Amino acid sequence: xxxxxxxxxxxxxxxxxxxxxxxxxxxxxxxxxxxxxxxxxxxxxxxxxxxxxxxxxxxxxxxxxxxxxxxxxxxxxxxxxxxxxxxxxxxxxxxxxxxxxxxxxxxxxxxxxxxxxxxxxxxxxxxxxxxxxxxxxxxxxxxxxxxxxxxxxxxxxxxxxxxxxxxxxxxxxxxxxxxxxxxxxxxxxxxxxxxxxxxxxxxxxxxxxxxxxxxxxxxxxxxxxxxxxxxxxxxxxxxxxxxxxxxxxxxxxxxxxxxxxxxxxxxxxxxxxxxxxxxxxxxxxxxxxxxxxxxxxxxxxxxxxxxxxxxxxxxxxxxxxxxxxxxxxxxxxxxxxxxxxxxxxxxxxxxxxxxxxxxxxxxxxxxxxxxxxxxxxxxxxxxxxxxxxxxxxxxxxxxxxxxxxxxxxxxxxxxxxxxxxx
Amino acid sequence: xxxxxxxxxxxxxxxxxxxxxxxxxxxxxxxxxxxxxxxxxxxxxxxxxxxxxxxxxxxxxxxxxxxxxxxxxxxxxxxxxxxxxxxxxxxxxxxxxxxxxxxxxxxxxxxxxxxxxxxxxxxxxxxxxxxxxxxxxxxxxxxxxxxxxxxxxxxxxxxxxxxxxxxxxxxxxxxxxxxxxxxxxxxxxxxxxxxxxxxxxxxxxxxxxxxxxxxxxxxxxxxxxxxxxxxxxxxxxxxxxxxxxxxxxxxxxxxxxxxxxxxxxxxxxxxxxxxxxxxxxxxxxxxxxxxxx
Lengths: 422, 293
Description:
The complex is a heterodimer of chains A (422) and B (293).
Chain A: H1 2-35, E1 51-57, H2 64-83, E2 92-98, H3 103-116, E3 121-123, H4 128-140, E4 145-147, E5 163-165, H5 176-183, E6 193-199, H6 204-217, E7 221-228, H7 236-245, E8 249-253, H8 258-270, E9 276-279, H9 286-293, E10 301-305, H10 316-327, H11 333-352, H12 357-366, E11 369-371, E12 374-376, E13 389-394, E14 397-402
Parallel strand pairs in A: 1-2, 1-3, 3-4, 4-5, 6-7, 6-8, 8-9, 9-10
Antiparallel strand pairs in A: 10-13, 11-12, 13-14
Helix pairs in contact in A: 2-10, 2-11, 3-4, 5-6, 7-8, 11-12
Chain B: H1 2-32, H2 39-57, H3 61-82, H4 92-114, E1 129-132, E2 135-138, H5 139-161, H6 163-173, H7 175-180, H8 185-210, H9 218-232, H10 237-258, H11 260-263, H12 266-277
Antiparallel strand pairs in B: 1-2
Helix pairs in contact in B: 1-5, 1-8, 1-9, 1-10, 2-3, 2-4, 2-8, 2-9, 3-8, 5-6, 5-8, 6-8, 9-10, 9-12
């Protein structure tokens, strides 16, 4: 009897605590974000009612690193915009909530931004995982949703009208420039056979699939095509099977760093080096990549990126200056992607001349925006129509080689030199 | 045919490495009824120390095992005296919980000290292979197998030719009788655990070269090791060796002839099938729980 009385007494106390934490949590996040408000500071031109832009980002949790990078990208854009006279002549105020990398919280956050904070415009969060539910909230509210990082094909198969992805391509088109380049090589240089290895992963996997589709259409024969679980470490069997087929090209849709590195090491052990090698994102891991496979072995490996610090894209120099001044280091790809998302929103708002979600949506549907990632335009599902920058490791450095107008190197290493004995 | 032989070679080589890593785990379980789920994390810890030595001084990872093995012995002894001994005699599920907790703590500490970036020791042989005719033998795996043989021979000698070994076998057979003949079970248990953990010193030095690793890499290892000791018979060292080789070959053949997608499922499928069909494993002894002492 006593125990029941205790429990009953505790229950309201617990409920009160949960309630306080729930409300307090949101308020705290709002409060923190309030601290990052940037009204008109340095200039006298931006005046009037601030334009309030709301976003939720994974500042804590699994995606905290890229989430923080994205926040910086947004902040830098706000700074630069306000210094230049604001948006439509009005100062920009950014409200950032922390969704803690949680799919439920991100929905709560965007609902709060729309209904309680009543923001004028929205910007997206990081990762397809979080953008999937968040974009649904925006769609229901009829608000344009430009997101910096969420390229899984699932995002664009829901018939949404207000969704726009601010990178160059969805994953299946990430390697288009590579495929194009291969298919257009002159006879004698053009490869005859190819092997494809894809991680069972929504980003990495489709990259290899895209290359395979385009290379097959371009007359390159597929001699090996397999999918592996992304946590695979032991690639000896796969490498051995690939080596037996002697393909000219190997394209790997890697999920991250480990699987890409382990495939290369397995290929080294079996002693097989292809003429051309492409990996999805692994080669963009800089030192971790070159340390793990040996820096001489990076020579000639192709990969695709959305952003490069030296790319001669419009506004990149100014962005870099502002970012380096604020944070004393170079921006990560995710920070640049976030900045580009804000640029997209800005271009549409300024072209339309007012905050009209439908007009902004229609304008983006029909126009191209110049960003630090290059030009961006979208199809009717919100998927972008460009291709990622094609990069290659040359002389121990990552270089952009295509498209030519933003390239940082005018040579392409072809064929790939054999693995060195270290 | 060439491909089949090469696949089997690769499978046996990686199986040899698995045998090295599983030897300590099997010894601990066989003697103490403790399922040391932290064995994987300890292997990664040894790998980190091996890497740190290699990075700072250029000491070859294989030579590094001369440093890490005694170090892990001390850590194993300390872990036993500090935590495991309090749950001796409790059901194995308790040891799973405790050692899992230890594994998580170890993972956290490693993350703090070395960060969660990928690390790999890359001495000259890390990506090279021996060649014999049409076949290739990756060097790191070959060295791993050589060390495995050394460790297993050493363990065999200790278990059969030394007083400690006889004491260990006595305790695992019948603890109260062992006490009667002058064996202190707690000391023996501590030493057994320490020896079992010491093998991770050697295992870690090979693991450091084989694949790049980070603090969370221990899950992949422990899943395989558990599969191996279940297959071979928990507590049987020869069983662990046979189980390890079989698992290595099974994984490699699945990846080649079925699909890489199914290869990571193999350890789990093995555990399920063995527990359903022959719970004592290949070489394990059938025990009756009701007459346990």
